[in-house]
Amino acid sequence: MAYLIKDFSRLAGKAIHRYRMIEDGDRILVGLSGGKDSLVLLRYLQDRRARVPIDYQLVAVHLDMGYEDPSETAALKTFAAGLGLEHHFEVTGYGPLAHSEFNRENPCFLCSRRRRQRLFELAREYGCAKVALGHHRDDLIETLLLNIFYSGEISTMLPVQPFFNGLLTLIRPLCMVPEDRIAKMAAAWKLPITASHCPSSGRSRRGEVGAVIDRLARANDKVRGNIFRALSNVRPDYLLGVKASSAPANQEGRAGISIFNREGGANMSEEQRIRTRVHFTTRVTLIFGDRELSGLESRDISLKGLYVGTRTRLPLETPVDIILELSGSTSSLNLQMKGKVARVDDDGLGIDFVEIDLDSFYHLRNLVSFNAGDPSEIEAEIARKPAF
């Protein structure tokens, strides 16, 4: 038991120190799903406070996706309260919504997006500048292969990921810890692990990729470690495309991502980004109250907003949830954001974006930037899916 805790703490502590995840005075929201990973993370971070020379505060947040047994939720509340932590528990309808006819995307994609968006909102409400999630080493490995197999790119989850120009930072303190060691810690600590009642549980692409890695690891126990080490042992000279040394040095744009002008590599101004338009057909769904307008077409979209053709009239400043389906010749991509009606005329509605998450902003930014380039690049961007 002592060795298990020491080994686990060594790996988690190494990640925290290497990536400077936690600093004195931090207030951190910890996502508590009820699975072994988040439970171990919360217990470890709380225990660690007594051993380190800095002080930080934790807020445990649990979001019920809509399928949870009340007795399991009660057990999690007891656990969080027993640690002496401030906590927030909330029931949502994200799971049923993601599995309904409303959602034309992968259920896991919509559910995780809504969950993360709500976590970010709660982080702001509770005054937390950091959000800690329980993703471990195996999650990073699987994400790398998922993105290679299904998105055609080499990328994975980041140990530290800033959002909204650094206003909020996502941290993954368990990113160096193998999943099997987390399972042993959960058993040793006798944590109240809750079962997943999601209809899609066990049927995801992540599970399929994990099974492939399991088969390879049975023949060679170094497979997982080698894939993980490959994430920090990249040899650009032996990859197709532009070498890292010759890539333009882009600066950080809004939401902590690089926004650059393809023609010269210089940063685009806010006005340029607003005025640059993407000219391809999109399908737009607007949701307001208990009503929705679906199948709307727009050929005018920017980082500031969009214009849709419709005979329906909505009052100015009406808040709307927006779903954009961007269609290329071979694939499509769904983006979601919040907006408000900013213009009403005989031909349609102008919608200003009010809140847009990093994934959607990232794709929209790339599409705007690629608009001046080869159409094949737009097709490639539409075919991409987020890394998490």
Give a short synopsis of this structure.
The chain is an alpha/beta fold and 388 residues long.
Q: What does this protein look like?
A:
The chain is α/β, with parallel strands linked by helices and 388 residues long. It has two domains: 2-227, Rossmann fold (3-Layer(aba) Sandwich), CATH 3.40.50; 270-382, Thrombin, subunit H (Beta Barrel). It has twelve helices and 13 strands. It has helices at 2-18, 36-48, 70-82, 94-98, 107-125, 137-151, 179-189, 205-219, 223-230, 270-275, 358-370, 375-382, and strands spanning 27-31, 57-64, 86-91, 130-132, 160-163, 168-171, 282-288, 291-298, 300-301, 305-309, 319-327, 332-344, 348-356. Strands 8-7-11-12-13-10-9 form a seven-stranded antiparallel β-sheet, covered by helices on one side. The protein is globular and about 70 Å long. It starts with a helix and ends in a 6-residue tail after the last helix. Mean pLDDT is 81; it is low at 243-279.
Q: Give the number of domains.
A: 2
Contiguous low-pLDDT stretches (5 residues minimum) are 243-279
Instruction: Report the helical percentage.
Output: 25-40%
Largest sheet features: 7 strands, antiparallel
Percentage of residues in strands:
15-25%
Relevant CATH superfamily of the largest domain: HUPs
Shape annotation:
globular
> Which architecture of the largest domain does the CATH hierarchy give at level 2?
3-Layer(aba) Sandwich
Q: Which class best fits the helix and strand makeup?
A: alpha/beta
What is the residue-averaged pLDDT?
81
- The counted number of beta strands is 13
* CATH fold title of the largest domain: Rossmann fold
